Amino acid sequence: METVTDRHDLDMTLAIRQHGSLALAARQLGVTPSAITRRLAALESRLGVRLFQRTTRRVSATAEGEAFCERAATLLQGFAALEGELLERRAEASGPIRLAATLGFGRRWLGPELAAFQVAHPGVQIELQLTESLPDLAVEGFDGAIWLWDAPGRHAGEWVSRKLAPNQRVLVAAPAYLQRRGVPRSPDDLSAHDCLVVRENTGPGGQRFDHWRLRRSGDEAARHIPVSGPLLCNSGELVRDWCLAGHGIMLRSLWDVAPLLASGDLVRVLPAWSMPEADILWLAPWRPHVPRRIGLLLDHLVRRFKGQPWKPATRSAR
């Protein structure tokens, strides 16, 4: 039975191509030139092709030899990646993780989870950048982003995406506002109300917030409802403060207002209607080998957010 090509054969052919000399390849590999000559002859005999042309001055790869070396390089990289992954699995997770996230969700929900993960894995160092604009992750050196919108089209084929949780946006108002202005009974009634408009993430890939896209539970199609009011801001937190103070109706993510709904400081308006969900996503540049620390962090976030910990019982306007 013939011997199959092994890793030593791959190392040998790459060394010969690199140096253009059997003697120099032998020196790199720590064997004698005669051993290299015998091994190469045996490999070529087994394959039935000549991999290298030999002259008195130089050894150069044939077309078949170039193809063999290219494949050999790919296979050796795969071996190295596999060994690195197996060694990493045996070791404690360590090293830096650099993340980007939207301001509100990053501060309110992501930050505490990153701190808890770091306590469980003290060898990991986490850097979190809160931003209103999604960075070019690979170019700017980010390992991933926790974001509320899909990857921009130019990166759709370059980044991987994983859903962490649904992101339901609901209509809310303070009880004092509804007592003063009345409770809307249909989306069309919103035109007669002060709607608190958040103008954030309005750049490429962002959203228009002066048209609220609402869908009734059970319906397939959504309605585009134009809204307006005397107060507008690019800060969702400030708009939430205005809403709490009774200045109007707000469309806001449930993760942001759920505690206020549970306490009764805010109540749902048109509870059968909400903005179609835009998932909370993990976005990351594609890489052939994901470091263990990043895989562990992603598993932690999926486990913590899939149950939507911000979703307690809420109250609705009547």
Helix content: 25-40%
How many helices? 9
Overall outline: elongated
Low-pLDDT windows of residues: 202-206
Give me the side-by-side strand order of the main sheet: 10-9-13-7-12-8-11
By secondary-structure content and strand pairing, the structural class works out as: alpha/beta
Number of E-type strands: 14
**What's the main sheet like?**
7 strands, mixed
Distance between the termini: 84 Å
Computed Rg: 30 Å
On the 0 to 100 scale, the average pLDDT is 86
Strand content: 15-25%
Order of helices and strands: HHHEEHEHEEEEHEEEEHEHEEH
Q: Can you describe this structure?
A:
This protein has 318 residues and is α/β, with parallel strands linked by helices. 38% of the residues lie in helices and 23% in strands. The chain contains 9 helices and 14 strands. The protein has helices spanning 7-19, 22-29, 33-47, 63-90, 103-120, 175-181, 236-244, 254-263, 292-305, and strands at 52-54, 59-61, 95-101, 124-130, 144-147, 159-165, 169-173, 195-198, 211-216, 223-226, 232-233, 249-253, 267-275, 280-285. The chain has a 7-stranded mixed β-sheet. Helix 1 (7-19) packs across helix 4 (63-90), helix 2 crosses helix 3 (33-47) and helix 5 (103-120) crosses helix 9. The longest helix has 28 residues, at 63-90. Residues 202-206 have low confidence and may be disordered.
Features:
about 325 residues, alpha/beta, 7-stranded mixed β-sheet, 5-stranded mixed β-sheet, 9 helices, 14 strands
